[in-house]
Amino acid sequence: MSSRSSIGTFGMLMSVLAALALTIMPLPAAIESFRPDWIMMMLIYWAIVAPQKYSVGTAWLVGIVMDVAQGTMLGQHALTMCLIVFVTIRFHLQMRVFPLTQLTLTVMAMLCVYQFLLFWINGVAGVTAPAIVYWGPVITGTLIWPVLSMFMNGLRFRR
Amino acid sequence: MASQSSSNANAVRIPALGLRVAALMLLSILLMVYDDRNQQLDTVRRAIGAAVYPLQIVVDTPARIWGWLVDSSTSRNSLELENTRLKIQQRLTRAELQQLTALEAENARLRDLLEARDRITGDIRVAGIMSVDTNPFRHSIVLDVGSEDRVYDGQSLIDANGVVGQVLQTGLKTSQAILISDPDHALPVEVNRNGLRTIALGTGQFDQLDLPYLPNNADLEVGDVLVTSGLGGAFPPGYPVAVVSDIRRVPQQPFAEVKATPSAALNQVREVMLIWMDQPEASSNEATTDGEVVEQP
């Protein structure tokens, strides 16, 4: 069993597409602010398990697509995702041996930094949004991370 | 939990990672600045947007199928009821319309007497809203029409009851629009009763607009209807925007705190109407979505 997993580039692409679909899927207005950052979590996952293949360049491209799909400033998500993936790759060896609780807390910290960077760029550009838009995704993202990572591991090592 | 790396020494060595991150970050910052200053990246957006379009269709499909199921399973009885209701409504509307024609003629004559310019009238067409969520930082919607259908940036949207918002970015087949309730949206309005002009700001809540620039002694009452003033040129004049719901006059403060309820049901609209004005290039700064207009006092 190697880190060159049974789920190849195609699988990675599919997982990111699924994350994008979940990101633009309509939700009731009440829970809309609690939509997890699916794409960011997926990129963190791939950066931990296969950093040689999916590095900052991939994250940047995905971020640009996200910017277009969401209509944010071109480069906003690209910059933040690229940076978070960079930090993840820097610590991916440690993160691989973390127990699940510790890994989840680390991911929470990453998601916090991610939201803070988005908030910061919005502040510079003069976009105002209520605070829950930034905090909601961190909370749900942290709760969902263990399930998501186990699900993805299950997919990767099925055979 | 994660996989055992085949060779750990191999995994760490990603050539010039720091350099690549620095280069990509610089590129993103340049992109953002360029995107913010002048909207010339539309072609890039359109190209990538065309690639995202199939995904939007896929996400939109379940809602569409659900709507179709609801439509096709409606009983004959309720359809007949709705039909009679609509017929009555149409009769009433037509009766009102007769008067309107006379009023329009009278208005034209009076305007002739005053030697005023004719009011701008334009084409209207209905557009659907796709069940796709977008920008979490804005109140925005995705329309199923794009630049192929002559939609342009800054075009105004209304529904049956009032102003809904304006187009922010046009793609090839879809476009994104911002609602008047977005915190960064400012809309020039006037009070229908006395022509008092002011600016209505979004608050981030669907059922509330702010009118922060009215002095304490302004002639304003709860229930006053606000219509677009047409100043700034982004919106055609005379469309209803909101009804004043609350006025609080604090003597020490220079401005009164005025709230209004939008006439359009902003979070319930399924279809909107796009207005083509006679001069499409007249988009302006008055109703822009830049933060500059919304400096709170």
Describe the structure.
- The complex is a heterodimer of chains A (159) and B (297).
- Chain A is 72% helix and 0% strand.
- Chain A has helices at residues 9-24, 38-49, 56-70, 76-90, 92-97, 100-125, 132-156.
- Chain A has 7 helices and no strands.
- Chain A has one domain (9-19, 35-156).
- Chain A has 159 residues and is mainly alpha-helical.
- Chain B folds into 2 domains: 17-71, no CATH class; 123-278, Thrombin, subunit H, CATH 2.40.10.340.
- Helices cover 32% and strands 23% of the residues of chain B.
- Chain B contains 4 helices and 12 strands; from the N terminus they run H-H-H-H-E-E-E-E-E-E-E-E-E-E-E-E.
- The radius of gyration of chain B is 24 Å and the shape is globular.
- The N and C termini of chain B lie far apart (54 Å).
- Residues 1-11 and 280-297 of chain B have low confidence and may be disordered.
- At the A-B interface, helix 1, helix 3, helix 4, helix 5 and helix 6 of A face helix 1, helix 2 and helix 3 of B.
Please summarize what this structure is.
The complex is a heterodimer of chains A (159) and B (297). With 159 residues, chain A is mainly α.
